[in-house]
Amino acid sequence: MRFGILQFPGTWSDTDCHHAVSAVLGQEADYIWHKDTSLEGLDCVILPGGFSYGDYLRPGAMARLSPVMDALYAFAESGGTVIGICNGFQILCESGLLPGALRANRQLEYRCQWTNLSVERSDTRFSSTCKAGQVLQVPISHGEGNYYADAETLDMLEREGRVLFRYYAANPNGSARNIAGVINEAGNVLGMMPHPERCCEALLGGTDGALIFQSIVDSVSRT
């Protein structure tokens, strides 16, 4: 399959994501510049972590205005697979592709550490290689990863099974209901704060992140 990895000014996890899906999983991967206007031929688009546009205004607020975003809206609307990681999650929320917002960590400090994630569902294109209830070890690296939504939206996400990952045992940033990752209504767009691309090889301390990317690859092979 073919991944496209979006690059905005300030993106810095793009090469990590490229390595994870190409060198580790053996898939095709291309970099897509923020001024590009086509995502033709891609099976999955990754919005990596970083500080797009220096996080001016709010993280992701300027990136959502980039030319490539029109193509991303169309790609997601047509059922294409989209995963936003860390700053990518922030961009997806700012753009309206996912509900909620990412606020400053409760501790008002940058957190870079391993976290435990509970897999809430195993029947999505992002979690099919996992088991419901399985706990994954995936690191975080953010200052504004505190997921927030109003009570009505949170209840809707719970009711519709759209919370895919929760922080397990310890909440590192104050996220509402321990939410670490959510999907859209159609189930083809995922936003998550932890970095699966940083734990795809044993050399890096863990391989649980590969389960998420492998789930994406398997979902494309089934279509």
Automatic annotation (TrEMBL):
Keywords, comma-separated and alphabetical: ATP-binding, Cytoplasm, Glutamine amidotransferase, Hydrolase, Ligase, Nucleotide-binding, Purine biosynthesis
SMART domains xrefs: GATase_5
InterPro entries (UniProt xref): Class_I_gatase-like, PRibForGlyAmidine_synth_PurQ
Keyword Cytoplasm: yes
One Gene Ontology molecular-function label: hydrolase activity
Cited Pfam families: GATase_5
GO biological process, one term: 'de novo' IMP biosynthetic process
Record NCBIfam families: FGAM_synth_I, PRK03619.1
HAMAP family reported in the protein's UniProt record: PurQ (MF_00421)
Listed name of the protein: Phosphoribosylformylglycinamidine synthase subunit PurQ
Organism field: Geodia barretti (Barrett's horny sponge)
Lineage: Eukaryota, Metazoa, Porifera, Demospongiae, Heteroscleromorpha
